[in-house]
């Protein structure tokens, strides 16, 4: 049996590593026990806690192979809560949002997720929260089946930086044999999400999502 190959997205956000006491987290290690195993079957629910212009915290519910679901909370549970719970054959397959366009202090200003329905091929989005219709921001995006999260907490307790672990094609939420080829491609097309004065356009043609 083989463990799936994982990749990590670019980390987005900002923490002052010189004047703040930084705390880091890695759910794939702490919840999934990677790299000795990977007990995360899938991310089943995400809740974002936001203020008017910042992301305060994120709560993730992980479905665990042969065990009860586990919840991981990072940052502050303050402000407005925005939740999305997957149903049926849905998966989180992308991460996008906006941060300050200040190269030295690119604070997170909004986060959203792409949702793919394996049964219908439909692609939709949750967020971004808070609204990214803010001045002086720039967008970011990363496509891939979201397996888990890592990041850091700023000195004020809010989310400082955030990254996603993504699976390569063939991941089914459990260890697999080397000849397993269970995956499905997103149908060709585009999904456009507008953030203030620019648009993130996702061209869908070769992205594979595990069945």
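-> sequence recovered:
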């Amino acid at each position: 049996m083989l463990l799936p190959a994982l990749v990590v997205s670019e980390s987005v956000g900002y923490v002052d590593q010189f004047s703040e006491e930084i705390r880091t987290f890695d759910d794939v290690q702490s919840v999934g026990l990677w790299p000795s195993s990977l007990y995360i079957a899938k991310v089943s629910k995400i809740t974002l806690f936001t203020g008017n212009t910042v992301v305060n915290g994120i709560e993730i519910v992980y479905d665990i192979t042969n065990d009860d679901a586990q919840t991981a909370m990072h940052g502050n549970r303050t402000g407005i809560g925005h939740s999305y719970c997957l149903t049926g054959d849905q998966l989180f397959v992308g991460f996008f949002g906006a941060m300050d366009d200040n190269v030295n202090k690119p604070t997170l200003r909004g986060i959203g997720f792409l949702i793919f329905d394996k049964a219908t091929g439909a692609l939709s989005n949750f967020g971004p929260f808070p609204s990214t219709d803010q001045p002086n921001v720039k967008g970011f995006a990363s496509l891939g089946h979201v397996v888990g999260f890592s990041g850091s907490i700023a000195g004020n307790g809010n989310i400082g930086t955030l990254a996603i672990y993504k699976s390569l094609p063939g991941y089914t939420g459990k260890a697999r044999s080397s000849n397993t080829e269970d995956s499905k491609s997103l149908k060709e097309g585009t999904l456009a999400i507008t953030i203030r004065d620019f648009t993130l356009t996702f061209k869908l043609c070769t992205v594979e999502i595990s069945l």
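The radius of gyration is 17 Å.
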